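Bumping with the actual sequence this time:
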Amino acid sequence: MSRLETFQRLASIGEDPASLDAILVTHEHSDHVAGLSVIARTYQKKFQRRLPVYLTHLTAPAIEWAGAEPEIRTFQAGTGFQIGDLSVSSFTIPHDAADPVGYTVEAEGIKVGLAMDLGYLPESVKYHLQGCRLIVLESNHDLDMLKVGPYPWSVKQRVMSRKGHLSNDLVSEFILDGLDREVKTLVLGHLSEHNNHPGLVRLVASQALERKALPAELVVAEPRRQGELFTY
């Protein structure tokens, strides 16, 4: 998202963009950091402060800052750190980036997890997602739609690889075999606009939740639409 879109979405949930404490970066791919340098420059010029940006030692050199000078705080993948009253833990994920990570954030006994852009769910990722009240996980593509879709074969192979993206079927397997029973809300996002459909994501995941007899709320984050605000 652009800086404008990011700030508009923050404002729509009552958050002043000028009050951000930090930004966490998962990896350097453009669909995740497109607005980052502009946001950092806005903080320097408009808000007169350098915004802290957290990212791994290996990800930092892969970011193009385009004149921005944020307060870069690097860390080793797999370590944790504190931002205010939030305890943040990072964990390595399998994706074709320099040093991609997911995050869990915990405060006041509530833990949430974010795992986007990963080709499969290794046991280490499942371990870090245990005990989460809310999980944001990608459900990128339907395998059959991807195979007959418009992407070149080389891109299809990348998406389907173990360093690519999660399919709906892999998410279903995770729900059945690895989803913690403590989870109250499962948000599925990063849907491909060419190789998936929100209704299909909901159907496959709902069936898995029913088979597992989990009462978790299922939310599908649709492309180009603002999601809801969750409070606990």
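The tokens above came from a reply further down the thread. The chain has eight helices and ten strands.
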